[in-house]
Amino acid sequence: MRPRELVVLAQAGDDGAFADLVRQYRGLVFAVCFQQTGSFPDSEELTQEVFLAAHGGLASIREPEKIAGWLQGIARNLSRMHRRRAGMATLELPDEEAPSRGSTSAVRSLELQNLLHEALSRVTERSREVLALHYLGGYDYREIGKLCNLAVQTVRSRLHEGRAQLKALLLEKVAELCACSGRSEHTTRCVLERCGKESCDCVSRLDEE
Q1: I need a surface site. Which of 9, 36, 108, 174 has the fewest CB within 10 A?
Q2: What's the pTM?
Q3: Which residues span the domain enclosing 158?
Q4: CA 135/CA 121 separation, integer angstroms
């Protein structure tokens, strides 16, 4: 069913239609929130807030076919409000429970995930937006261009730029980890060369999409 039809049904009180809209646009909303905040946890919470606000404001939609832009607007506004609040006060969070010894693989997976999240948060905003829409939202170049009012070639260029930034940031982190673990300069150089080659190969494959 087309988005316009889902919006009309949702406005009439069809919760199933609204759930379909959430599934269809969750990636877009999350990507916009992440582009604004650079934080995965904050973006998850904001995504929920966006759809809560959207559900309450369905009656105000005059052009159902423009639902994507309407949701983007809510996401940007709530994200900016969040950033202003975050700048005024810091919330103290409780320490997370330490993982058990038997969960080594889970810990490593979490560490890698956090490493990637940190790198993504340090990419420039314009590159982070297209990276998030493509890899987190699942949108192709043409769809991203339509959502962001960009030419397809510009989208491709920003994705390439973002991947290059990610590679540099991840290699920088690898160097830090090697230094902290007491690796020799020669070993560190070998690790970086290996990681650099694999990163280049990966980026080349992604650029062929």
Answers
A1: 108
A2: 0.64
A3: 106-207
A4: 14
